[in-house]
Amino acid sequence: MDHPFFDASEFPFHRNESKALLRNLCIIAPNPAAIRLIYKEIGPNLPLLTWSERADIMWSEAMEKITPYGFFSSFISYLKTRHATVKALMDVIELIENAIPARDERFFSDDIFILDLKLQRPTIDKTTADSTMANVLLVRGKSGSGKSHCRFIYENVSKERQAKVVYIYGGMCPDVKSTIEYIYGSLGIDPIHIPPRDATSNEAWYKSICIDLKKVATQITDKTGKLVKMWIAMDDLGYEDAPDENGTMRPAPIIDSEIRSFFEQFALFTFDASFARHFRLMLINYAEPKIPSKWKANSWLEITTDENAIQQPDVEDFIKYWLRARKKTMLDPEISQLAVAIIAAADHPSPDMAVFPRLQRIHDILRSRLEQLS
Fold it and tell me: Considering all CA atoms of the chain, what is the largest pairwise distance in Å, rounded to the nearest integer?
């Protein structure tokens, strides 16, 4: 995945830059005749643009046709030449030109940001590509190393792929039955239509669920004309120390182990292209030392997070990214000084901060400093 606009095969309507561009286009050219005239100037052999009295509909259709035909760059050049004095439009174009792929996004909200996962991002990208065979992504790592944050990148990339991410963690679904019901509910299917468990083995029931999910997704796709693409991110698949019947602390599953067994069966089905066109899987905190023997080679990839991977250069890069996004400036020595202070505070915490994982400390200190800069 390269530039999210200039190398895209489809116009990314979900992005904020796209929404801002369409708003501005409706302002500079609200007349249907003017829109069609501009459209004809962009490139030869473009499909006919449907006439509409609504500018937003015509501009949206224009973007749908200009982008896959490879004329989006020409369109932006046209706007920069013909409407260079329209500041709001030029500001949006600057955002578009500086846009980054969804996998490289670092800032998701005021409270959620990722300093860096440069080693993990390419693997996430591979498991989300349209042509991949590896439709299952395992996320491993120690407690507090940022495993769960990987799902924000997964969710962000899903928007580029027109997919829906369903995130499930232990506190939501206490057992495998409620987990399966949640998946069906996310598809808009009443749980009464879930294949009954009857007296079959767990494995046989899980297989029947996967077969039925594929049938349901196919039916919805045929009915709506829109491909159902659901990516499931299942968290809390690891272990934590808990007392046994004798009070001895031993590793115990964070969630019902049958949930893991279900998704291991689910993963088998993703090697079938007709199933994988609808479903993909991210298994977070997957701590099993051995991969299930029935999994096909090349059907899965894995990443490992490390809380000690974030150092001063990573914090500096993030601060620069944050400053650019807000059109703020700061001298490089000041940025370095701030990054050094943040890492030092995180690595030599006060007693009340020491109870938190290192990445959480860096995150909280950095967020506080950025709020001050705001």
Answer: 81
Are 21 and 96 within 8 A, CB to CB?
Answer: yes
Cα angle 110, 116, 119 (rounded to 5 degrees) comes to: 150
Residue 243: what pLDDT?
83
Looking up tokens 């894995």 gives 302
**352 exposure class (CB count in 10 Å sphere: 0-12, 13-18, 19+):** exposed
Encoded tokens for 212: 């039925």
What whole-number distance in Å separates Cα of residue 50 and Cα of residue 125? 36
Alpha-carbon span 27 to 139, nearest angstrom: 46
3-state secondary structure of 32: helix
Shortest CA distance to 291 belongs to which of 137, 166, 180?
A: 137
Q: Three-state SS for 319?
A: helix
Q: Say what angle helices 358-373 and 312-325 make with each other, to 10 degrees.
A: 30
Structure tokens at 340: 């050094």
CA atoms of 124 and 115, how far apart (whole Å): 16
Task: Check residue 221 and report its DSSP letter.
Answer: H
CA distance 4 to 272: 29
Name the percent of the chain lying above pLDDT 90: 66
| Exposure class string for 274-311: b at 16+ Cβ within 10 A, else e | ebbbbbbbbbbbbeeeebeeeeeeebbbbbebebebbe
Asked if the model's pLDDT at residue 1 lies above 60, the reply is no
Strand partners, 168: 234
Read off the tokens for 70: 């490879």
* pLDDT tens digits along 282-300: 999 998 888 999 998 889 9
- Give 87-108 pLDDT, tens digit per residue: 999 999 999 998 888 777 776 6
Q: Which residues pair with 252 in a beta bridge?
A: 240
109-112 CB contacts, 8 Å cutoff, 24+ apart = 110/367, 111/367, 112/149, 112/152
For residue 209, CA distances in Å to 67, 137, 282, 293, 355 come to 39, 21, 18, 21, 42
Give, in order, the Cα–Cα distances in Å from 250 to each of 58, 175, 195, 243, 245: 63, 21, 36, 6, 10
